[in-house]
Each structure stands twice: as structure tokens, then as C-alpha cells.
Amino acid sequence: MATDQSSIGRSVLLRQFLWPFITGFWVVFVGVCIWGGGALAQLAWAEQRAPDDPLAYQIQQLQLELDALATLTPVILQPSELAQAIGDAVYNTAVWAATGTLRTLMNIPGLWRENAANDFIRHHPDPGGTYAQKMFQDTGHSWQRLVVANYTLATRTAMFLAMLPLLALTTAIGLTDGLMARARRRANAGRESASLYHRAKLGSTGLLITSYLACLAVPSLTQPVWVLVPVAVGVGGLVRVQGVL
Fold first, then answer.
1. At how many degrees (to 10) do helices 54-70 and 141-161 cross?
2. Cβ atoms 165, 75 nearer than 8 A
3. In 50-107, which ranges are continuous DSSP H helix?
4. pLDDT above 70 (res 117)
5. How far is residue 70's CA from residue 81's CA, in Å, rounded to a whole number?
6. Burial, 111: exposed, middle or buried (Cβ in 10 Å; 0-12, 13-18, 19+)?
7. How many CA atoms lie within 13 A of 92 on its CB side?
8. What one-character DSSP code corresponds to residue 224?
9. CA atoms of 192 and 29, how far apart (whole Å)
């Protein structure tokens, strides 16, 4: 029994130690999948809409969406600066990760590097970093399309974040009205519905996630207000349902 209890204790301590790393891994993994899927969707839309010059089409769409982003004026943030910061962060992280991976594979001294058939890998002081720079230069058109897709996704993310003040307002209104309706229901001895409460709670989160994924995947988003306002109102309505129950 003592052995079992000590094993359980070690297992609990191990989970408590590992959970930040596991959580961080899944956050990064899901983020990369979402961003990568959105970028691939933008590349596919450009190939379909303008097969002769998809890069020019992507640049044109990005400029249109930047113009639409400039029309949004939330109080708590500057959408254009936020889009630039998000795009730069993702771009720099991708370049840093690719360069670091190649340096890890090529720069570390060892038998693999000493016995490499390529003189460049054996004798160059930084073969991994040099190869990474050459790789980004040689990809040319494809790399430029990925960069434009990245900044398009950053622009749409900034559009979605620009909804935060409106979302806070609709949530506050929905919660206030829901609590008032709840007080009236309790005063009249009305019945509660736990299943409806949980469905509304999951629905508000699902609506935000689904709307964000749809914003990343659509071919063009030049009228963000038509998307953001219904989403904010829908979330406010679901919050009101939660407040009533």
C-alpha cells in the first residue's frame, strides 16, 4: 500500500511539473495548424482566382483588406499597428525556427559533419545559417506568396480583435438583461434548465472560434463589419441565455 501511495504521489508531482510544457506544446501545435491551414487556404484561393499571377492577386487582396482595417477605430488598440506586429512576429518566428533547426542539424560538431560529402558543411563556420538564407532566397515566388498570406492572416486577426470593445458591450448588455430576467424567473418560481445553460456556454465559445476560423479561410474579407457585428450580437444573446438560467 505504501508503494502504491508513493507511486501515486510521484505521478501527481510529475503531472504538476509537466502540465505547463504539455499545455504550451498543444497551444503552439494548434496555433501552427490554424495559421498554416489559413495560409494554405489563401494560396489555394489565389491559384483559383488568378492562376496566371496569384502573387499579384494576393497583394491586391491584402491592400483591400488593409484599407478595410483602417476603417475600424476601436478605442483600446490600433488595428493597423496590431496587424503589423502580429505579421512581423509570425514571420520572424518562422525564420528563426527554420534557421535554428538547420543550424542544429548542420553546425554541431560531430562524426556526421566530419564525414559529410559536402565540403561546405565540413568547413564553413555557419553552414546552417547560410543554407537557411540561401533557401529563403531561392524559394522566391513561393516564399513571397507565403509572406503575403501571413500578413493577410495577421490583418484578419487584427480585424477580429478590433471587435473586442463591441463584444464587451454586447456581453455586458446580455449579462445584465439575463440577470434581470433570472431574478424575475426566480420570483415567479420558474424552472431552470441546466442543459440549455451548458449549450449556451459552449455555443458562445464555439461561435467565436468558428467565426475566427472562417475569417482566416474565406477568400476575401473587405467588409469586416458584416461579420463582426453579427458575431458580437450572437455572443451577447448566448450570454443572456446563460444569465437567465
1. 20
2. yes
3. 54-70, 79-106
4. no
5. 10
6. exposed
7. 6
8. T
9. 39
